[in-house]
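In the previous lecture we treated proteins in isolation. Real proteins rarely work alone, and many bind small molecules. This record shows how such a complex is specified: first the sequence, then the SMILES for flavin-adenine dinucleotide.
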Amino acid sequence: MNETPAPIRSIVIAGGGTAGWMAAAALSLAMGASDCTITVVESEEIGTVGVGEATIPPIRLFNGMLGIDENEFVRATGGTFKLAIEFVDWTRLGHHYFHPFGRFGDDFGMTAFHQQWLRCRAAGNDAPLSAFSLTEQAALAGKFDRPPGSPGVFSTFSYAYHFDASLYARFLRRYAEARGVTRIEGKIADVRIGSESGLIERLTLDDGREVAGELFIDCTGFRGLLIGQALGEPYEDWSRWLPCNRALALPSERLADLPPFTRSTARGAGWQWRIPLQHRTGNGHVYCSDFISDDEAARVLIEDIGAAATGDPRPLRFTTGRRRNTWVGNCVSLGLASGFLEPLESTSIHMIQTGITKLLAWFPDRGFDPVSRAEYNRQVGAEYESVRDFLVLHYNRVERDDSDFWRMCRAMEIPDTLAAKIDAFERTGRLLDRGKDLFEAPSWLAVLLGQGVTPRAYDPMTLAVPENDAQRVLAAMRKVIADTVTQMPSQAAHIDRHCRMPAGQA
Ligand SMILES: Cc1cc2nc3c(=O)[nH]c(=O)nc-3n(C[C@H](O)[C@H](O)[C@H](O)COP(=O)(O)OP(=O)(O)OC[C@H]3O[C@@H](n4cnc5c(N)ncnc54)[C@H](O)[C@@H]3O)c2cc1C
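The predicted 3D structure, ligand included, written as tokens:
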């Protein structure tokens, strides 16, 4: 006989940054006609972290799930389209490569495209892999277009966004409030936990108001007010692998041509980002304080932004890592309250998104079955580990020997899972896929090759295709991609035509 679930009747979201309003928007939609109330408590005085401007392609699924019109969203957030990240000076000074979204070429039946490319390269073809990425070639040319109805070569193309994080939170707030979410302005001063149940019962605000609930979502940022401070869930420190612990964020004037990619430039003790938005450019220096002073880090940033600054550098501090469990009792943490692996591959907002979708898949009733919680924690944990490995690859596989920071990164002991992946790629050109990677084969391929990891062999199955045929197909693909890019508009022209932010809106 089936047990009737005892549905959750009230959800309290503590915090209204990107995480809080993404959760509120998604839950307000998911709860549909149920009579579950959703309340967001946030404090304008405390404010939000205010950074987080670059994303990866799955964000389009999130916005799509909410039924958000893309042009309206880009206009409202000062957004631009992001095709890739350009890594400058990472492998060695003077070197650069792109991590584009989408795929390289088309697979040859069961054989991965890059294997035929490796084979043709061994036979003397000097075309770089990048020539077979429509996304990368468009990024290089400063072009952008949305895939047409019948995609053809665009089936290999993909994109994400750059946007203004506070405008995105504001946009989602309007969405959530229109669907019945209540917002309470106030500072949480106390978290009451039931002595027998061990569950959170209510939040007390500093003016004495109380906010009771059945399910609590902790989106209070680095503070982790509920999951960490009240429930005592430990934070696993991963700075032995990801040593950067500070950042300075600095806006500058808009770049006229709106390059459709994030730039990440390695510096002596970390790296610097450049994110083009419609109304300004986001810049920041992420660094490890063991190797550079804050003043020196600010000097490096200001000297290198290449445009007039429109504010002062804003400092941020963090410890890379994650909560051991991101769901404890009746409290699920999302965003910075659950962990932070630094912004190198723009994964944090994505982790909020997948935290929400996993929560919806394992949504509890008032019994809070521990099996659902355990599975949620396992899946979130695996995702954090796979992102960690991808990030560590950038730091560890470098030729740079010009600073103590880079010498330390080269010498660090890397996670076994990453070591196995690098080893398999060097031996066979194949990519280990253990079914939990956020980043798929093309991303690993771009970064492994970009960081100078070169396979010694290629797939023997490539030999099932005559070499001349393989060379011919490669040449034809390269031409289709080059011709397609020629016909695409510039990103600035595309935005002007479809989704320009109205003047004065920011
Ligand atoms: C340097 C840096 C660069 C980043 N770049 C990127 C990027 O390019 N791409 C990306 O995906 N992510 C990036 N991130 C991460 C991204 O900024 C966050 O994942 C995202 O903004 C979510 O933050 P949050 O909502 O968890 O926290 P916050 O923005 O800090 O929000 C916390 C909320 O909790 C509220 N709050 C806290 N305490 C209380 C209290 N006592 N009472 C009431 N309310 C309270 C605050 O008022 C606020 O509303 C970056 C992070 C950093 C540090």
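Summary for your notes: The chain has 15 helices and 21 strands. The radius of gyration is 24 Å.
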